[in-house]
Design brief:
With about 1200 residues, the chain is mostly beta strands. It folds into nine domains: about 190 residues, no CATH class; about 180 residues, C8orf32 fold (Roll); about 90 residues, Immunoglobulin-like; about 120 residues, Immunoglobulins (Immunoglobulin-like, Sandwich); about 110 residues, Macroglobulin (MG2) domain (Immunoglobulin-like, Sandwich); about 120 residues, Sandwich (Immunoglobulin-like); about 100 residues, Immunoglobulin-like (Sandwich); about 120 residues, Immunoglobulins (Immunoglobulin-like, Sandwich), CATH 2.60.40; and more. Helix content is about 10%, strand content about 45%. Strands 59, 68, 71, 73, 75, 76, 77 and 78 form an eight-stranded mixed β-sheet that branches. A six-stranded antiparallel β-sheet has the order 9-12-7-2-15-14, with no helix packed on it. Strands 27, 30, 31, 33, 34 and 35 form a six-stranded mixed β-sheet that branches. A hairpin with a 4-residue loop joins strand 75 and strand 76. It holds the Pfam family Transglut_core.
Amino acid sequence: TDYVEVEKIAPPLPLDFLAELLKYLTPEQLAELAENMDPQDLADIIENMNDGDVDDLDLSQFSQALLALLFGAAGLIEKFRIYDYNSINEMIDTLWRYEVFDEYTGDQWISNANSLPFNFISDSDYYDQYGSQNRMKIKMPLSTNIGTNLIGLPILFPTPFIIEGFVDAPNLVPDSETLTKDDFNSTAVNLEFTSADSVNMTFELFGLDLPSEQDIYSSAVLVSAPPTAKYTNIINQFTQLPPDFNSYYTSQPNFQTHYDALNLTIDNTDNAFVVANKTRNYLLSQFTFPTTPDEYQSAPEGRDTVDWFLEQGMGVFSDFASAFCVFTRAFGVASRFVDGFRSLDVFGQVEEITYPTEPEKNTLIIRYKNIYNWAEIYVPTDIDGDGMWAQFDVSSGAGGISLPKAFNMTVNSNFTAGPRGQVANLTAVLTTSANQSVEDKEIIFTDYTYGVDLGNATTDINGTASILIDIDNSQVVGPHVIVAQYGLSFNWTMYTVYGDIDVNLTSVNPTMINRSISNSTIIQGYVNDPVANQRVKNATVELVLLDKGTNNKIGFPFDTFSANADNSGNFIEFVNVNPWVPRGNYEIRVDFNGSWGGLPFAFGIMNDSSNRIGFNVTEPLTFTLLFSINGQPTDYPNSPNPGNLINVKRGEQLNLSVTLIDESDMSLASGEIIEFYDYTNGDVIIGTDITDSFGSASILYDIGNTNKSGPTLVYAKFGADINYSYYIVNESIWINVISFSDPLEYDLAAPFPFNIQCDLIDSFANPIYYSQLDLRMNSSTDYTNKLTPSNPEYPTVPGSNSFNFNRGVISGTFVNNYTLKIEFNGDFNFISFPYPAIFNFAYLSNSSELTRQLRVYDNNDVVIYLAVEGNPTTDVYDNSYKPERYTRGQTADFNVNILHQELNPILGDYVTIWDEYSNILLDNYTFPGGTGFVQFNIPTTKFYYAGIHKIKVQFMDFPTINTTFIIINETVNVNVNPIINIDNIVVRDDESFTVSGYVKENGTGLRGLVVNLLLFNNSLGEDSQYLIGSKITSTLSNGYFQFNLNKIALNCSQGLYNIRIDFNGSIYLNEVPGINFIPNYMVTNSSLLVPLNITAGTIIIQDGFHTAPQRPNDGLWEGDNFFIYGNLTWDNTTVMANMKVNVTVQKLNGELIVFNEVATDSWGGFNASFVIDATWSEVNFIDDIKIVVYFDPGPNNLEYVEKNELKFT
């Protein structure tokens, strides 16, 4: 069924956030927070993040909330704790996902993900499949509500592995927890609580080992083939900009400026990871994090959040993550925005509670100051776009209040390109637009390409710092990106080292391709600097295909022209051989021409060629097989012409012959092995022959007893080339009838199909497959059209030779005996064969007539005349036409006359007479022929009980019957259930009740007897008029009766009464046929008396209560008088005077404070008063007490009266 979300009640916060906020903030801090943001708004944002429902994220409000949490005491509120982790070092970079968003509107992030139920992972599956993964426990503080609570969970990327059976919290309904997960893996849990309390909820989860950024970089590729539909959908959804890129670019000037600057660093060959990394580096170099809340202003209403951030030059995590997503989307990289928490707080610290002697108890605390934003990017790892989502920490290094102010950095090198033996002077210049010193700043110089720390230098008063680098044998040939960095400010320059280079081809796998199987191979090798003895990164090599033993290059042999070495200097390229490369023997070589990353840094200066590895391109040869049987060529691939097919008898031979032609030059192919197969007879090989100099091969095929009659498919085969033909075994085909229905008959009155089963075989019992049969029915003329379903009949299992006819005849068919015949008309359906064909060979047709005829009859064509003592039966008996009545010892005479299909029964036909209700056979009679009359004289001693008996007469086993009724008039027993309403007490005008019992004779319940219910007072005077409800009914088939009384009338006096059930001899049977009401037709009888107590009710009426001199609403004051007053009446509202009433004042838990017994006045009124004294000390207000007035008839000497109690409100 479709998933339906729970109806959300007020979602729980991590404890009461506002209440917790007030604990952490001083009045001054609260006032300072209120200047920037309403505390309630802050609580609302936290609620939206935790309620398990991904709400739209207002970036302006969220960024202000971040400041309050990151820089204020509010951030000290605890979010969750983590237990059972391996080590704190493994947790430093952990990000805890909550919500993911895909649509950016300019001032909001919106999620279009759909939530559906998601399965927990079982404990056994964890150990079987993921046992190596660290399993952690999370503890979260919650404020719960009664009922279902939807709670967002912190999870690990990418899949929410929440372990089944380990969600626990106080007051949690057992087994109530269910998970939901949306399309972006945001996860929530539904928990049902029995009370509203602050609790700690724990659950267990684990995550997968995530690839490092180096791993992602190594696997990332550029999409260069037709993309998959999945990748196209991802790009369409996750590169969205409002409303599109062109409109956004032209309407947001600051975005336009930075997009153009960033575009200068991004190449068309950069894959998704490289683009994302360059975007992150650009944002971290150009923008800063505020050191205090005063430095930051969120985007004004109506401004695009990202464009505002770019204009201000400063932002929080949400700004960096939003800008990152917008820029990567602009460059075609699918990305999405994430909110959650990280293990590091804003100061770069991890808060851990350690237990040195018990490290298993170590706890990592996550507070609201750990709130964080990042992104996820989609990285293609296949050229068609297949890939993976990767977690991408955008603000890594941007957070923390100790970050330096923004500086600008430039760097250059006097050495740009050349051989070893020179010195490079690297000069960095640090500048700033702020009024800050640029002197004495330590600049770090790094060879970014090879990860070498080149050294540090301190800036002078002008912000200039320089170092000298020897271009010696330690420098690897090729381009080097040199980075100068101070804090978050950095820039780069480049130089290229010339020198010797070695290209090595290590493998080609496979070294031979067959185009009929695959065009692909893998070319693998490495590029090395023999002087520095290091591998060369990112070197571009050309993939060359040469004619074997020559230097003749094949133009554009592969779908990939070149390959780039990775960071280890290795290259591995999957290539497809282009279709224009002819088959033949080749060699593969790899050439280096001075390019890195496809750019000609040393083109024409540095060159090398690798060793060669042999490579062969093959393709299947195609041949034509000219196939003939006895010199008759096949019609294949056209449909076979039956007139061209060879007919053969068993004991004869066929000549199967082939001429083989090589299509490459249309020559006759000699010396090749031809195989001949018989497909129809089991796809078995008949024999083989080798083609002679004329390309001919042939065999003789003996047609024996195992060859099936009918058309036979044979074929000749050479390699993958096949040719087909048919021949005909012209031998008899037989219908083997296995079984048919016994008796073989069909009743038009009760249609049930008859069945015939048969096989289709030839004279040697070979099964004849893929055919069909017809069933025909005649009686001097053809009545086949009366059969249903119509012909033909197909095999029970398609392609088999077994047939199962289930047939009937249509209504209106004449009652008669019919001859059945099964016909085979020579039809064959080989449409499923490799050479499909449909044949009809009339000369192979045959038929089989069943040895027994089909009898069609109509059981309903039976008439039974029945009379009792000469009186014919009727559908309904009544007082004017009563059923016959007998006493035991008499004989009942039944007159029967039968016509079957308007004729007297034949010799051997029989009739039976039954006592239907008892299912007793009373007598039977076999007809001698010539008459259908018989009289049954049945002694009434055969009827075991009194009352109504239904007599049934049936002719043989035909469904037609006739029935009548007789009455056995004997005394019956009326038994009534002595227990009424459990205690035989009924409150008048208040309670309904039932009276039930049985009417029996000789232990058998008697149906259709009319019984009456009567009520008698203690003096045995009849008071039935006080019974409200039906007082007459008839017994059911088991003799059971039941009276349902609505109540006892209000004007009935309370006291002791008796119930009696009378049977006055009347009968009534609601059946078809049946008996209308006939009074006084049997011996009467009555039940014993059953006592019944009828009680009167009482009514307590609340008039009110008050205190004096104070008012109740002002509280309960010691010394005041407390008055309680009301009225007591009978259930018929007459007053109850001079009755004792007990009045109590109680605590809410039922503990007694005071009580008083007062008497009602002549009007039934009562008034109790109390003085409020020290016994009332624990209650202060009316709402703290309850008033209970109680009436007990016992102390008032009243019988048959109900107790009563009323709580005053």
